[in-house]
Amino acid sequence: MAAVMTTLVASEESGSLVLAATGEWLVATAADLDRRLRGIEVPRGRRVLLDLTGIDRLDTAGAWLLLRTEHDLTAHGNIVEMRNLRASFEPLIDQVRTAGFVPPARHPRPAHHTIAGFIARIGEISVGLIARAYSILGFFGVVCATAGRLARRPRRLNMTAIAAQMEQTGVNALPIVALLTFLIGLVIAYQGADYLRFYGLESYTVQLTGASILRELGVLLTAIILAGRSGSAFTAQIGTMRVNEEIDAMRTIGLDPVEVLVLPRLFALVLTLPMLTLCANFMGIFGGGLMAWSQLGVGIPQFLNQLSTIAPWSFWIGMIKSPFFAVVIALIGCYEGFQVAGSAESVGRLTTLSVVEAIFLVIVTDAVFSIFFSALRI
Amino acid sequence: MPDQSSEPIVRVRGLVNRFGTEVVHSGLDLDVIRGEVLGVVGASGSGKSVLLRTIIGLNRPAAGRVEVFGRDILAISDREQREIEKRWGVLFQNGALFSSLTVAENIEVPLKEYYAMPLRLMDEIAAFKIGIVGLPEGTGEKYPSQLSGGMRKRSGLARALALDPEIVFLDEPTAGLDPIAAGDFDTLIRDLRSSLGLTVFMVTHDLDTLFSICDRVAVLVDRKVRVGTLEELLRDDDPWIRSYFHGPRGRAVLRSATEPLARDEIPVTAPA
């Protein structure tokens, strides 16, 4: 390499220590220079001359290193003088000098990386959960009050919005709901027949498939798909509107965001989820029947006959649960949307949270229903 | 003043950009000379930002040639592209700071990407860059969402300056700032230009900025660009250019700029 070595050389000159900087003091060489400057044994109480004759190129990073060296030497009781700085570099040095010696910013470190912080974090999360539950309950109250007000003036209900939401959350979700429940029906029948055969009870395959789909799986799968598909969309839509200040604009015009945004979504989901559940039940049982026919040779009359032995309550239990699940999904989706504040980043975070929360609460609700129905002995 | 004899740092020839059937640029030529502050103006939708995005390689034009530092930006390898990216800095309209990082960490991103630097040195560099762009102490620890619009632009500029680039591209640096903050930003850019020897390519709507810091102005009219000093453009008889500089706002700025006392020299107290 023909280039001048970028370095700092120390020598003595009539009682002064001379540090001669040469070469290119640039951001590209800064890491190397920094290492060598930190390796220098700092003298004390000397007269030090920083000779800058040899510097060919200089940028702010290089200027910073020179100024830092000067600063460190002075701090150690040396008398420092810079000399032979090229005139063209002067404004650069001045620029960095006026920026001053600002202490570097600390990198924020998550507090829960210490034991005390970890325990504090558990407490924080617990308190946060309670506050959150309280806040969701409050939101539910506002939605109910708004719905009650609307019930007195049903003309204000925006049917177009409800229809549009029903198309998005219902019609457009139909293919995926149908396909998934069909496949689940197939799998349950196939696996069920395998186990039942072991006990010689394979003739109950249709009952097993039918009962589990009607009572639990049809409605639960549909609700989980809608939580992922529509609950997340609600959060993202309302959250984006919040970032865009559209919600604030609505308020100033006199529109109630709960009435305009939440109720159509809630009503649409309460109407579509039972319909989708119906379709899911049908497709699941169809899948199970197909498997029973191909694996066990169950024909249509026998299939219908076996299906009719399932208690009709199984079907109604599934259907009764579906609007409750719809309320949970729509409520959480909209609530999290309204929680968006500030940046677009929080839209993504809250959308994830809304899906997780909605699925969690759907399953909790399902469990509560289970206890309720078992108390009723149905 | 810019050295007119040196070769241009950016050279655009025969640039054509179209979106669908809409032609934004047709046969546009433009040079950016080393050391100058070039202001780019034009009506909304005339393709100012598209021009900027084309030069920095974010938009592939339909035809034409774009050279930055003498390299054809449309036909270079990824490695050459990285070499060029080290030598320029870009300030996007709203700062485009990474929202999950603090201001200091934002400034350290390019340092980390291109140079194996000890963390302590990066922290020091970030700290004095924050000082250079005139942000108060302690800004480095804040997240972009905690900053005002003006502070976000300054932080974006600090990140653009992290690698000591030769040219910075600024997209409407003073838009959305109050007049005082906008004036401060103009001063900052002028100071940085003279101390760091920066070349500045600036898309702007701000007439004050044009009059106070731009050496030359490029006006986008009729899908082409007309470049000149302000005096030249003031004599131009294109109808859009005339209404731009000689409209009520243009006249007001022109009047104050040509008055015997420049605004920042007006004495605060009347001389006795």
Question: Keywords, please?
Answer:
heterodimer, A: 378 residues, alpha/beta, Transcription Regulator spoIIAA, 4-stranded mixed beta sheet, 12 helices, 71% helix, B: 272 residues, Rossmann fold, 6-stranded mixed beta sheet, 4-stranded antiparallel beta sheet, 38% helix
Describe the structure.
With 378 residues, chain A is α/β, with parallel strands linked by helices. Chain A has 2 domains: 7-99, Transcription Regulator spoIIAA, CATH 3.30.750.24; 129-375, no CATH class. Chain A has helices spanning 27-39, 60-75, 90-99, 115-152, 159-169, 174-198, 205-243, 246-253, 257-296, 300-307, 312-339, 345-375, and strands spanning 7-13, 16-25, 47-58, 79-83. Chain A has a 4-stranded mixed β-sheet with strand order 1-2-3-4. In chain A, helix 6 (174-198) packs antiparallel against helix 7, helix 7 runs parallel beside helix 11 (312-339) and helix 11 runs antiparallel to helix 12. The mean pLDDT of chain A is 89. With 272 residues, chain B is an alpha/beta fold. Chain B has one domain (34-46, 77-259): Rossmann fold. Chain B is built from 10 helices and 10 strands. Chain B has helices spanning 48-55, 78-85, 103-114, 119-132, 149-160, 179-196, 207-213, 230-235, 239-246, 248-258; strands at residues 8-19, 22-33, 37-42, 63-68, 71-72, 88-91, 167-171, 199-203, 216-221, 224-228. In chain B, strands 6-7-8-3-9-10 form a 6-stranded mixed β-sheet, with helices on both faces. Chain B has a 4-stranded antiparallel β-sheet with strand order 2-1-4-5, covered by helices on one side. In chain B, helix 7 runs parallel beside helix 10. Chain B is globular, with a radius of gyration of 19 Å. Chain B starts with 7 loop residues before the first strand and ends in a 14-residue tail after the last helix. The chains are: A alpha/beta (378), B alpha/beta (272). Chains A and B meet through helix 1, helix 2 and helix 3 of A and helix 3, helix 4 and helix 6 of B.
